[in-house]
């Protein structure tokens, strides 16, 4: 990291990094709804290839590659959204005198959206985020998922399972939408890639155990995890919200996180 700060120190001292890690750890159970069926398919294929019900070192490696592929995909998309935000804010700063107002308004919108997502998880309405996905996009996601499922046999037995995991970055997920919005608001591609990668790594324990040992997570435990996930989103959403308010001249308590600043 910049300034000679190591990755573990950055995570320990960065409130946004801690929030992203907790979102990943707590959101792993939610990921089972989207990733669980495909995980089950490729886990069954691995067992058939090994001709054993016991967990082998090869299966562990394949599950690890699959989940690393997911994390890398999230990181790449996080960097893309952040780059788009950086280009927008840079253009606004160059062409008008309203750059601060635009960034402040964007912080309010993004922070509010993330906080509303958190409230949805707290009150058991997490599925409401799915309504914001346009029907054509949903159909496209369905075709991508179908394409991946149809090629599981071809991808599951070697390093190409990494790509199978990476496809999940293109699938709709209520815990990823707010994270991409946050990345856009920061306008910092490298930092956003690290944060989204951290979120992806945080989801690995649940999906790894699901694919190898558990097979399911009880509805009661998932509900508890969703409430904790909602609380994490409230913290994450407050970061851009507070920065947006301060850019608009409203002084509020805030966490010291470096958001996009104009050059010069």
Write up what this structure looks like.
The chain has one domain. Helix content is 75%, strand content 0%. The longest helix is centred in the first third of the chain and has 39 residues, at 57-95. The protein starts with 6 loop residues before the first helix and ends in a 17-residue tail after the last helix. By secondary structure, the chain is mainly α.
Q: N-to-C terminal Cα separation, in Å?
A: 23 Å
The biggest beta sheet, please?
A: none
Helical content class: over 70%
Spell out the helices and strands N to C. Answer: HHHHHHHHHH
What are its keywords?
mainly alpha; 75% helix; 10 helices; 264 residues
Structure summarized in a few sentences:
The chain is an all-alpha fold and 264 residues long. Helices cover 75% and strands 0% of the residues.
Chain-wise SSE layout:
Elements: H1 7-13, H2 15-50, H3 57-95, H4 99-122, H5 135-150, H6 152-155, H7 161-166, H8 176-186, H9 189-214, H10 219-247
Helix pairs in contact: 1-2, 2-9, 2-10, 3-4, 3-8, 3-9, 4-8, 4-10, 8-9, 8-10
């Amino acid at each position: 990291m910049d300034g000679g700060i190591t990755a573990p120190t950055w995570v320990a001292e960065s409130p946004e990094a801690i929030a992203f890690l907790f979102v990943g750890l707590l959101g792993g159970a939610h990921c089972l709804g989207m990733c669980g069926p495909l995980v089950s398919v490729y886990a069954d294929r691995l067992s058939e290839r090994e001709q054993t019900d016991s967990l082998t070192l090869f299966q562990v490696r394949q599950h690890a590659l699959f989940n690393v592929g997911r994390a890398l995909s999230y990181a790449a998309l996080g960097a893309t959204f952040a780059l788009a935000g950086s280009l927008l804010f840079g253009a606004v700063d160059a062409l008008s005198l309203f750059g601060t107002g635009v960034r402040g308004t964007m912080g309010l919108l993004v922070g509010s959206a993330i906080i509303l997502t958190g409230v949805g998880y707290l009150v058991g309405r997490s599925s409401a985020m799915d309504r914001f996905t346009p029907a054509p996009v949903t159909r496209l996601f369905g075709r991508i998922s179908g394409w991946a499922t149809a090629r599981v046999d071809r991808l599951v037995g070697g390093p190409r399972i990494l790509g199978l995991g990476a496809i999940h970055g293109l699938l709709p997920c209520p815990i990823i939408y707010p994270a991409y919005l946050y990345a856009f608001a920061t306008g910092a591609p490298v930092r956003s890639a690290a944060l989204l990668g951290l979120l992806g790594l945080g989801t690995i324990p649940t999906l790894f155990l699901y694919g190898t040992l558990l097979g399911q997570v009880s509805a009661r435990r998932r509900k508890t995890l969703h409430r904790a996930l909602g609380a994490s989103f409230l913290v994450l959403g407050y970061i851009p919200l507070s920065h947006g308010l301060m850019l608009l001249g409203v002084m509020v308590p805030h966490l010291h996180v470096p958001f996009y600043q104009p050059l010069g």
